[in-house]
Amino acid sequence: MAYRDEQLHEEKVFKDPVHRYIHVRDRVIWDLIGTPEFQRLRRIKQLGTSYLTFHGAEHSRFNHSLGVYEIVRRIIENFRHRPFWNEEERLLCLTAALLHDLGHGPFSHSFEKVFGLDHEDFTRRIILGNTSVNQILQRVSPDFPKNVADVIHKTYPNKLVVSLISSQIDADRMDYLLRDAYYTGVSYGHFDMERILRVMRPMEDQVVIKYSGMHAVEDYIMSRYQMYWQVYFHPVTRSAEVILSKILQRVKELYESGYEFHVKPVHFLSFFNQEVNLEEYVKLDEAVVLYYFQTWVDEKDPVLSDLCNRFVNRHLFKYIEFNPNLQLKQWAELQQLFKKAGIDPEYYLEVDSSSDLPYDFYRPGEEEERLPIHLLMPDGELRELSRQSDIVESISGKKRTDHKLYFPMDFIEGLSERSKIKKRILEILHG
Amino acid sequence: MAYRDEQLHEEKVFKDPVHRYIHVRDRVIWDLIGTPEFQRLRRIKQLGTSYLTFHGAEHSRFNHSLGVYEIVRRIIENFRHRPFWNEEERLLCLTAALLHDLGHGPFSHSFEKVFGLDHEDFTRRIILGNTSVNQILQRVSPDFPKNVADVIHKTYPNKLVVSLISSQIDADRMDYLLRDAYYTGVSYGHFDMERILRVMRPMEDQVVIKYSGMHAVEDYIMSRYQMYWQVYFHPVTRSAEVILSKILQRVKELYESGYEFHVKPVHFLSFFNQEVNLEEYVKLDEAVVLYYFQTWVDEKDPVLSDLCNRFVNRHLFKYIEFNPNLQLKQWAELQQLFKKAGIDPEYYLEVDSSSDLPYDFYRPGEEEERLPIHLLMPDGELRELSRQSDIVESISGKKRTDHKLYFPMDFIEGLSERSKIKKRILEILHG
Amino acid sequence: MAYRDEQLHEEKVFKDPVHRYIHVRDRVIWDLIGTPEFQRLRRIKQLGTSYLTFHGAEHSRFNHSLGVYEIVRRIIENFRHRPFWNEEERLLCLTAALLHDLGHGPFSHSFEKVFGLDHEDFTRRIILGNTSVNQILQRVSPDFPKNVADVIHKTYPNKLVVSLISSQIDADRMDYLLRDAYYTGVSYGHFDMERILRVMRPMEDQVVIKYSGMHAVEDYIMSRYQMYWQVYFHPVTRSAEVILSKILQRVKELYESGYEFHVKPVHFLSFFNQEVNLEEYVKLDEAVVLYYFQTWVDEKDPVLSDLCNRFVNRHLFKYIEFNPNLQLKQWAELQQLFKKAGIDPEYYLEVDSSSDLPYDFYRPGEEEERLPIHLLMPDGELRELSRQSDIVESISGKKRTDHKLYFPMDFIEGLSERSKIKKRILEILHG
Amino acid sequence: MAYRDEQLHEEKVFKDPVHRYIHVRDRVIWDLIGTPEFQRLRRIKQLGTSYLTFHGAEHSRFNHSLGVYEIVRRIIENFRHRPFWNEEERLLCLTAALLHDLGHGPFSHSFEKVFGLDHEDFTRRIILGNTSVNQILQRVSPDFPKNVADVIHKTYPNKLVVSLISSQIDADRMDYLLRDAYYTGVSYGHFDMERILRVMRPMEDQVVIKYSGMHAVEDYIMSRYQMYWQVYFHPVTRSAEVILSKILQRVKELYESGYEFHVKPVHFLSFFNQEVNLEEYVKLDEAVVLYYFQTWVDEKDPVLSDLCNRFVNRHLFKYIEFNPNLQLKQWAELQQLFKKAGIDPEYYLEVDSSSDLPYDFYRPGEEEERLPIHLLMPDGELRELSRQSDIVESISGKKRTDHKLYFPMDFIEGLSERSKIKKRILEILHG
């Protein structure tokens, strides 16, 4: 039998708290799960620094990747024998679902920002490069690795396949909303996924939703909205992320300035030099990053040591609402005051902005094209969701942005009571 | 106001998926949670290697410690104004609950076995030593640290206080059964904790259970039984633990033999020398251990490299039922065959035994004294649980033991097909 | 001890699937639960005809009444020692919560429509009249019955007390959303009630919500919106209700025309005569109504027999979207066609409209005054919810109305195939 | 297409809180659900008088019957293409599952006891008699009704089919344990049904369980044990049942003695005469019974009136542990004392016994043959469950029996304080 069609002698089952069981029958999927590249995802948290806000959020990307695979598996089980669906693309869908986050590194957001990386680029490189994953994909067929990479990169010609994993209601989002809600324990992320799966229908170039399932979709979009603002953008989480970015920035600066590290940032060198090769990249997991942070608590550079101590022992920055675009003068003054007080604003004063667009449809001329969700009406027509749903219409296209200023309140409180600088800083911060 | 009575301006709340919310009002508890020693528990998994079997089991001891605290808080909220209960011991109970696992290291079981350590000893040392935790406890009162340590060590005179945290139905067990069931996703660990809390009553030297709650307790004991055999003793988890112990054993041997490490086991030296000081101990968290394991994959010693590769990339040992006491001859022969095949049995052949006693009452003359669970009958009398419950009686005092043999099947399969050794090994293993 | 302060020797506990346990300590509450008037609520379904759509929705108003009591109990437990809260009004709140639905009859909606009744009026009459409930309330104090009735009727001077039971986020709504979701099994009605209870604060004339709980309230409002459209207004449920109303209408007409019933509508006579006394009212529970419907299946009047058969055996009317205001001509034509076909449109053709206003604030000059939900901002100010929440703002004040036409498709299909009437009816119905 | 193979144009789905969704594709199943005989099950509570103890337990047999159908549907979906399974018997299994409780009347237990009926006999008569159900079954094939009846009656030759619905781990039990736990809200009845369904395998004459699923089965048996003693045998429920039986007994006696009823027991006449025809039987649902009970509260016979009042308004009998076999003398004395006090012991003094055998295997020579649960071992052998499971072994074959005495405490308390009879009765009752 061809490798691509090989079935396991007995179905393998993973116990999963979110989907109850994850079922694997294909040899290819089983082999991919066993690769070092995929196992590495166990050492990268799904929600980065969120565990410092929600102590339950310690789950890994390994968890989530299995979940996305399982959702796609269930969707296409329902697609069998339906028009527009080509059973030949089943394995491609499952594989792309499983591997879609393969290139994520530890605390991706901060690393990407500081070192100018792109995890999607690394997903592609792992799939196409000299890796165990690639070897397995090659065995399926010579063009299979590229197809998988193209689906993940959204350039695969069959957009129906792409939309399973990347659209405004895809397996990726459904899994992470449910999963992150489960592990954090918040009550927001719930929606009736089983119902949504039952009303999904394949069409020429996308998955659409039967009209009768519209309310389940509304619920999903509301969940998404709440999870973004209550969990993903939580200011305590962002505070930890600000510190993390500052650590990376400081290490890079120290390295470039010739600073003598007590414990050298060996695993980071290629990042500093902007020439990250694949082998080095996959070695950098969260354990390694935390090892360095912990040892750097004892470095003599006071900024690095302090920032690492803050991250490791969770002494985070405080925050206030602050929009530097509207408060230009205060922003400039604060930087001056910090300098005068001997607190380097480069590392200790940061504005972080979060913004979210809970749902949108394509508007000609806009930069980022968002594939709208389409409802399949009883008469066979397709209709864009927000034209049918009052709730969705009301939030459609409405971008909300929050700006917050992060700073070490303990430093400010530690300034001399008589200091005018302290008084003035507090005046500005307390509005 | 005395520090011990200080209340937070506003109650702090942690979102917890198991108990929904964890409530903190006492300044002392809040300060303890903020210490580096307590935050360190975020970097130690509650279930060690279980995440390699149940991918959801990635939660930390930080999680569990907050949970035990919360359960004790709820129990003693119900105790207020009841006979035998002394509200003066409230803070002591809460503190002991919060800190009871403070001395746990990474993968404690293996470390304790290989290096002859005892995590309870370290809990004591952290509480009594020169630590942030100790400073806070000192502020409560000079004898407070010792009292907390004594409660955890079960030597505190008031046994009622001790039994909240250490008995056959204590806050520790109730939390870990519910929590581990939640994160693994298994359906076994559920019981009606709310009901049990409602029927707990303080007595002179123990917590007892009102008779009307007996069935909830039966359910709890069954949950415990199932969790032990289905989760805690799962052979795949034990396989990972066997490998972990072998890594530690190998590193120690290499170190003692003067082997030149590419990446030196700096953090382990005091462990090898059996002189672990507190400062070094608390630095060794799971991130550090995983950092070493990952770097040692590239060590030139083939055994160390192979074992680390197995652990990091989850290439575990296979297992069969095997009782070396009953199968002495095969045991000896297997060791010989492994040696002949060039597979060092010291590192690649191991028997691991699990045994559990789901419930027991004290029997005079026995080594380990187990405090029985007592029911408070409607007539005010106390009665040992198994005398009242058929179910509990039926499993009471029945120890069950499983023996399994672990070995690298891939090595054996890799032996030459013509080899008689291979054939004979497989014969023995397949019974 | 005064009766109003009497506590039960031991707390009584009801197992409740929604709130886990319902706790009763007050003798007055316990006595009220035991009255025939309250026990009667066991024989009246909470959701009327919804069980014909959602088979799980068989729960009674007894269930719900206990739930509302429990929620109020929890709210005011948090209010103790807070400003604006008067512990003297505790028992009044609990009693009003427990009894707020006491006057509901079977399938209230239809009975009220056909016979011009008002269940709130009967609640008042049971509380103030010659009943077991009244006797118990009298024992508390002579003015207690009136106070309870006034709270339920929203005329009690202390609006804080009123708002616990009647406002846009009261105990009544919170219980029914959670409870109806639980029993129907739909996934919409969930929101974090525990969080909402924690952020409720008493103020001078209302309960307000701390700003930090805004998102839980948004979730609650969305749940409400979804439950209305997915459950409460479900067209199959409305179809059963249409038939029920038609039965009542027919029985009344037959009675007034002197028809000789095989089984006389003894229990209905006072309803026909518009002089319903209390004693007769409380005797009419769902069992009695269903007894009549079942026996009337065998009545010789074909309309009554057919309608009863439809209700008892669930042969419901079909429905289409139809707005008679916009489709005046078709509406008139349909009625003509039905008459020609020998199907009395008075009983077999009905438009039913549902409309809902998910949230609104007071607008001067409007008929129905709706108390807005106020957020308590960090600076102590109060702010109307929709000014703070984008989501709520977007649906605030937006009334949505659905019109549906109900008719017996089986009758129409049973018309002769050659009939032009049949053809024309189907043309209109299929749009 | 043959009627037996007809599929619905679109799958029908029932929202179910226990199984989430119940799926119907077969036209035959859909038609059966629509019959008056099946719809009648909506008017019969699954747990009889349990709602007077657990207010949530108001669900009907309609609910449960759909649930059993759904479980069988899922089981045999897994059986397809497996040895021993004949897809030809699919519809038979589904139909028997759906209809297995069709003959249940209101409060079956009491009716069967007082009037010597057997609900299984009525199930058979409805299936084979002149009913809508029978017409549908006839359309499938002339012998189909008999086959369905035989499966339910356990006389069908293929025991594999029988065991799906009647064995110690069948769809009937799995559904009622989960469902009754859900509606009562107790935490006992949970077990991992999904896992059990996955490990069920068809064999020659029974369904067996793969060894790897043994622990899920242990959990199921423990759930069963707890549900029996905590829910089904709850003494408050039994108290209501005792009263119910006494009402039926009294009505019968009054009827036979020529008593003139104010409201005649028309629906009961054939029951008194022991000649219940099918038509009359299916008319007697719970609404009808409750209608009579309510009207009989006003009957002039004081016993009937009192008993009906007790049932309708939940003034139940109290109870104590009492074994008349061991306490013969007290039993006789109590009856004398009651007579002297003017309380008819025939109606006001009753011993009720409950006994349960949580699991058993066949023991030669025993009256009731119980099909044991067999495990399918890895080597292909079958093994009786209790030989493999310590837990099950420990409770296997152990029958537990409880005896309770029920009596109207309010009557006794109402006796004159000076009465020696009262004193003596209380002495005996209080042991």
Description:
The structure is a homotetramer of 431-residue chains. The first copy, chain A, is α+β, with helices and mostly antiparallel strands. Chain A folds into two domains: 3-200 and 209-232, Orthogonal Bundle (Hypothetical protein af1432); 235-354 and 403-429, Growth Hormone, Chain: A (Up-down Bundle). Helix content of chain A is 51%, strand content 11%. Chain A is built from 23 helices and nine strands. In chain A, the strands form three sheets. Chain A has a four-stranded mixed beta sheet. The N and C termini of chain A lie far apart (71 Å). The C-D interface holds C 14-18, 20, 34, 36, 39, 42-43, 51, 54-56, 58-60, 62-63, 66, 182-186, 283, 285-291, 294, 312-315 and D 14-18, 20, 34-36, 39, 42-43, 51, 54-56, 58-60, 62-63, 66, 182-186, 283, 285-288, 290-291, 294, 312-315. Chains A, B, C, D: This is HD domain-containing protein. Chains A, B, C, D: Residues 61-177 form the HD domain. Chains A, B, C, D: It comes from Melghiribacillus thermohalophilus. Chains A, B, C, D: One of its GO terms (molecular function) is dGTPase activity.
